[in-house]
Write a structure and sequence with these properties.
By secondary structure, the protein is of the alpha+beta class. It has helices at residues 16-24, 111-135, and strands at residues 2-6, 10-12, 41-45, 49-54, 57-67, 71-76, 83-92, 95-108. InterPro entries: START-like_dom_sf (IPR023393).
Length: 136
C-alpha cells in the first residue's frame, strides 16, 4: 500500500545552499544521530549511500538524485520495505538567507506496518525539521 508522509515546513535561518551541502554527502549523516542513540546504531557511509543496523534491522539509503541547492532524493538500498525520501531546500521569497525546509517520504507499507510506523515516521520527520529550524 502506497503511503505518503509529509513533514511540516520550517524556516531555517541559513541559505538553501548551506542546508543542501550538509545533506549532500551521506558521510555527514552520523552527525545527525542523537548522542544517546549513537552506540545503538552501527553505521557505514560513503558519499552516495549509508547503511546502518538499527535494533537488528539492516537499513540502507542511497542518493538517487541531487538537484543542487534545491532537492535531494533518496531511496532504500537494502531496507525491510521500499521507500523514497525527498528533502526540499526552498528559498524563502524575499530573504535569500533563509530556507523553507521540508521532507517527504513515500513508502510501500502493508496495513500493519502503516499502522505501526506512520505516526513514528511523521514524528521523526517533524522532529528533524524542528531541529534544523532550531539549529539553523
Amino acid at each position: 500500500m502506497k503511503t505518503e508522509i509529509k513533514s511540516k515546513h520550517a524556516t531555517v535561518s541559513r541559505p538553501p545552499y548551506m542546508l543542501y551541502m550538509a545533506f549532500v554527502d551521506m558521510r555527514n549523516f552520523s552527525q545527525f544521530l542523537p548522542e544517546d542513540k549513537r552506540n545503538e546504531v552501527q553505521l557505514e557511509a560513503d558519499y552516495d549511500s549509508v547503511h546502518a543496523v538499527v535494533q537488528g534491522f539492516n537499513v540502507g539509503v542511497k542518493v538517487v538524485e541531487r538537484v543542487p541547492y534545491s532537492r535531494i532524493d533518496f531511496a532504500d538500498d537494502g531496507a525491510p520495505f521500499n521507500f523514497a525520501v525527498s528533502m526540499h531546500f526552498d528559498a524563502v521569497p524575499g530573504d535569500p538567507e533563509k530556507t523553507d525546509f521540508s521532507v517527504e517520504v513515500h513508502a510501500e507499507l502493508n496495513m500493519m506496518m502503516k499502522m505501526m510506523l506512520s505516526s513514528r515516521i511523521q514524528e521523526a520527520l517533524d522532529k528533524m525539521v524542528d531541529g534544523m529550524a532550531a539549529n539553523g
